[in-house]
Amino acid sequence: WPSGARRTSTGAVAIAGVDLVELAATGTPVYVLDEHDMRGRARAYRDAFATASAEVGTEVDVYYAGKAFLSTAVARWMHAEGLRIDSATLGELTTALRAGVPAADIGLHGNNKSDEEIELALTSGVGRLVLDSLPEVARVADAAARLGVRAPVMVRVTTGVHAGGHEYISTAHEDQKFGLSMASPDGEDSPAVTAVLAVLERTELDLLGLHSHIGSQILDPAGFGVATRAVMGLRAEIARRTGVLVPELDLGGGFGVAYLPGEVPLDPERAAKEMVSALADVGRELGTPLPRLSIEPGRSVVAPAGITLYTVGTVKPVRTEDGTVRTYVAVDGGMSDNIRPALYGAAYHAEIVSRVSEAPGTRCRVVGKHCESGDIVVHDVELPADVAAGDLLAVAVTGAYGRSMASTYNLVPRPGVVAVADGVATPIVRRETVEDLLALDLG
Ligand code: LLP
Asked: For the whole prediction, is pTM greater than 0.90?
């Protein structure tokens, strides 16, 4: 639960002093975001990485990965906490700019950037464009030449380290769409080296750095160390061949969070230690000055700060194949506001937050209101046996990739987002209405 969550004397839960029963009176489902909790996590990344970097004599920039959840309010909070904004699309870039974040503090990613995205990035003067393919080197250089500007760029490389969940795997082969492979099995230049050489040939491009992102929801930091060493090796190879010592390495995001009670998140200090000590080790071995560092956490900054608040509707006991009974608890949202259980089999925890119950726990599955049986919000959770229509149910750790991946399936309007802080609830994204959806319908 967000750090501001407490049971009040009525038995209801309040977050940051805002009673969820009162908040629900303005409509459910709704995403609730604990502003101080999210800001605190942003500071924790900034401080942990700044401390670790300072110990080895380098510096760090922390970019908040807007794909996890971005609104203008969130962009302002993150910038106020000293973070920059990582965008991956025109929508994210425009939102960060509209929030008043200086373009120099924004990065643009994307494996298939549109002309419009490249142009906005260059004309607004973003701090960096992360190049993802060889054709993009030429596209961005040509666009910069046409617009009469210089383009600060990074080259995204793939180290063969893929991480996520509890493990990482390291392979020589890449069969996915992102970045430029560092592997050169036939002895020729790797795609990563080829792209870096192409960047250095174009006078419109400033090579700021190399970028590596190895995965998401990573709990074991070892993969970060392996990837860091690999990219440091590439930096040294480029220096040997061209005399150019690339000034910065971005080691991406992917820091894992605890979705269920008892799970242990990857804390920023451990992640920082793993990355920075790998950086320093290789720097020492090769005798090269250390690069500046940047990282791009998304999920770990916003997921635990957010919950989704639903109202319980139909409650139905269902006999399962093994003869036992499972209670299906249907809520007023579902896979349209959280696709992660259906898409990834993601596990979540839920509780009744409108009252305290003395009833024994019973095995439940929280489902939504959509027209398919895969519309599951929480696969397995124990709820009080007297769970009933009208109860408020909160699902924890939904701040990341919930609203940002929401759909309007079944023409269900998307929930709004309410920020809570110091006893005050402030809507930061308006709840969509059926009229909003019909406004797109041209008849
Ligand atoms: N940087 C890059 C280049 C990325 O591709 C990503 C995530 C991040 C940073 C932020 O990663 P994070 O710290 O949030 O793990 N929809 C999926 C997650 C997709 C992540 C894609 N890239 C989910 O709901 O689990």
From this structure: yes
Predicted ipTM beyond 0.90: yes
Annotated catalytic, 371? yes
Residue 192 CB partners (closer than 8 Å, separation 6+) = 155, 157, 158, 179, 180, 181, 182, 210, 234
Q: What is the mean pLDDT of residues 74-97?
A: 98
Give the Cα separation of 15 and 7 in Å (integer): 9
pLDDT band, residue 174 (cuts 50/70/90): confident
CA quadruple 216, 297, 422, 311: dihedral, nearest 10: -20
Q: Confidence class of residue 165 from pLDDT cuts 50, 70 and 90? A: low
Q: Into which CATH architecture does domain 56-297 fall?
A: Alpha-Beta Barrel (3.20)
Residues 207, 137 contacting (CB under 8 angstroms): no
Q: How far is residue 109's CA from residue 118's CA, in Å, rounded to a whole number?
A: 10
Q: How far is CA 179 from CA 152, 154, 302, in A?
A: 17, 11, 25
Q: For ligand 1, is residue 375 a contact (CB within 6 Å)?
A: no
Compute, in angstroms, the gap from residue 194 CA to the centroid of ligand 1: 26
29 preceded by a cis bond (ω within 30 of 0): yes
What number is the average pLDDT over the span 242-270? Answer: 97
The encoded tokens of residue 408 equal: 């309007």
Q: Annotated catalytic residue: which of 9, 264, 287, 371?
A: 371
In CATH, the architecture of 5-34+304-438 is Beta Barrel (2.40)
Residue of 61, 64, 67 to test ligand 1 pocket, by largest number of atoms within 8 Å of CB: 67
Ligand 1 centre from 219 Cα, in Å? 14
Q: Which residues pair with 329 in a beta bridge?
A: 315, 366
Instruction: Give the confidence band of 166 by pLDDT, cuts at 50, 70, 90.
Output: low
- For the chain, the structural domain boundaries read 5-34+304-438, 56-297
